[in-house]
């Protein structure tokens, strides 16, 4: 496949969505993102890396980090995690408290905020440094030693984080946090505030396409666990629009309100697209359009 | 009326409930309450005070304090409060987050925990010391200078208060708190941890039966506002069992998980009954039985 | 009291709401109501009857009928009804299915539609003619032999009644109907479609102010049951606005989407006000304003 | 691959679940199913058909029929369907009314009962005979002219169908049915009551693995639509356990309370497994275990 040309086509589809969607503004530090920015990258299991547009420009990965914290917990043999968090689509917005109350503090899946807090809490218990472990994994897989946490964004999230604090206290009230609320929130904001580029994320997610094997061939996850993570991504990775994303794009994927979407073509490649303007469900309008165009052109959906 | 005999009869009805209900154990300091304790007092608008059983023994007033903080806000001309909190029965448990999310951070009424937090927040803004103002009002009306906050209980509530912290952060995330979450919680726990006896509370609540007039004749509320507070008590004062309390007792009333229930006979008297064991809705089994017996014997319901 | 003058004052308050609210239009037959119509009547326990405006003009009583079907079931010794329907405020709109599902087919109270269907079903089992029994009670108490069911309205409701049919089938699926869905709906529409005037309804509701005694002195309900019905009216009678109605008017009351509101002053009188335009909760704007003015002027609230 | 051996292995895994789960008993006609029955079949795109156990024994396909009615609507160019039904996981049981009320009569996806009723309604409008069209499609693809509707089951469902009637009336109250409630229900029960074997269903579902091509090579769906249907199956096909099914089995699949599960290996084959005992979410315990074993052994998940 001519990936360069395919990425250019995808970018054209993304550009056609200009003017649609809204940049996340719940924290000031995100609100300043460039609405015209767009990038896309692919990292194949046979070692190719291609990109278009702003594919090497770092952006705030936000909830894309939830994928990596989950993987790190599972890599530590963390199957017991599934007693503390489900793996069903939630049918509710990512930050909803309703389901959490109805289901006694067990978040529906690891990608809604409440579930991700439980994952971060577990990773913190396992490693002592949840945010740092996520950052190190991204650095190692991307080979980018400059990949770093944006401290302004982390501080801005903490200062405007009453909803996440509510979720964390609610989890704690149900005995579903092992660490102090403040610590868990600090690491959660720390991992969300990592800045990485499409190139970085495509490389960092490639092990999910490669049966769990890291960049140098070391095993991060078993092949079976890599498949399972892809399953959870497909059913739960794009908030309350997972069904639509599966319908249009047909790939496991994880989005963040920074505008990035990381998607997996099992056995072949990881893709990352980025554009700051979000649709009503919180997914990047441009990134979804680009991925849609890419899978339509290539037939590379899992279905 | 022979109030002494009526109170003895009511106590017999309360004693007949022995063994039913459960003492609140969500904080250790409450769990140690004496399951056999029972007291009841009446304070009439013409100055009589009568009591039976442990009517002079202090207990933790808990949510009964919500009535007094509401009255103090209204006494400060706080009608604007009703833009921040409703006055409809909630149809949900007192500590539920569900309705709060559905209704964008406006608590259904001032007696569910979320609503009471908003009231405390407002009282804190108006006076600088919400918990202290509630305590001073109780001292002045009861004439009991020893009435005090139980610091152990306040500390225990704070240490086990993740659910209230979740509610407060959720309110803050919707811009419905004026003060810092930590401050509001501190004053909320402070007012709930006041220890008072049935005698103290019957005297302290008498102004609601007396058209808003305090013990010495000074006006705390307008007659119209006193009626309105009674209306909110009747529809919302006993958590998710307000309908049943109205059906059985037929008086405006406010309960707390310490086992106290303060009830108002408009134009005539305030009553307070206390027994630590609670029913499923969080109301004292013995106190409700005693009030039921009292209004059945006297015909003194509002209906 | 000079009831005539008080009613005129109340009518002035009602007239001042002209232009507010919306006439119910979910069935064509109701949509044609005269937006300028207003009437109000009082029937005292000592036999006085007074009225103003269109107080002798019949209107569709709709949900006001739910009060009479409930009373008839209780008059037949129907205390077992409370195993099939609760008596707590619902916190949800009158026609909601949500709570019904969460609570396994037990409606929250007898005045939301689902609860009223259960009451009608029970009355049908007890008497063989639920709608007819309600109509006969109204005729007897009002002394108006012309009081009748509006067949056009009943037919219109049946033709547009998918939501009530959904509620009835849902009740049936939980085993909470004794008769066929179609029969229960027919009687439900039949009782709702009764046309009566403010005069008729004030007279018909007077027994609730008179300790359960009917017009000629015969007993319909025990004094205790009359109080209990008043309690359920106050906490549940005006849909999702019961708290606000208690706060403003301070009387037990039952409203209907035909624009009528029947209210009870225990020990003294029944009042009925009518104006077709409804507020968002489905209560008559003019009728609530008139009752509010009346109780403010007289101090005749239960509080 | 040695499909015969793989199917025998899968059957062993299914047999190991003996005693777990419960046979659906909401209608008498289903309650009599043989708890020891088990069958499994595969139909590959290159024309192979294999089976084990009771793979040629007909069972009630129930909700598996929803897949075929959806496909028939899409095959008729029914993309407008997506304005009347979503394609997101529901996060609620298949027969829930809650979400339907919150979302104004637009079912979350075509596989919960409410959504399937909308699909059947549309198919009825398009063809005049929804149940018949589903049956004819199954007959044609399976080459089994004896495949038929079980009239006893259809009648039993209608007689015990208050919950589906509630859903249908609720849809009608929101204007989301084109045909009469009774007609839609009749066709819905008709399609659910079709009896087919694992062999029949594997053959009938093969076009979803074959880019939309029917048994003789004729096109039923475009390749793109076949992928999209697979996406909806994966995210919504197994009720409230879609996430878990994706995690364990990793294939698009549709289950029914008759105990059948039809799954798709895109590009390769359709599988059908059957065992009457159901787990808490309503999916066959044995069928899911068999499919899990099959994909674990072969690595044939989509991820």
UniProtKB/TrEMBL annotation, chains A, B, C, D:
This is Glutaminase. It holds the Pfam family Glutaminase. Keywords: Acetylation, Hydrolase. The lineage of its organism: Bacteria, Bacillati, Actinomycetota, Actinomycetes, Kitasatosporales. Its EC number is 3.5.1.2. Homotetramer. It catalyses: L-glutamine + H2O = L-glutamate + NH4(+). NCBIfam families: Gln_ase, PRK00971.1-2. InterPro entries: Beta-lactam/transpept-like (IPR012338), Glutaminase (IPR015868). Belongs to the glutaminase family. Substrate binds at residues 63, 113, 157, 164, 188, 239, 257. GO terms for biological process: glutamate biosynthetic process; L-glutamine catabolic process. One of its GO terms (molecular function) is glutaminase activity. PANTHER family: GLUTAMINASE. It comes from Streptomyces montanisoli.
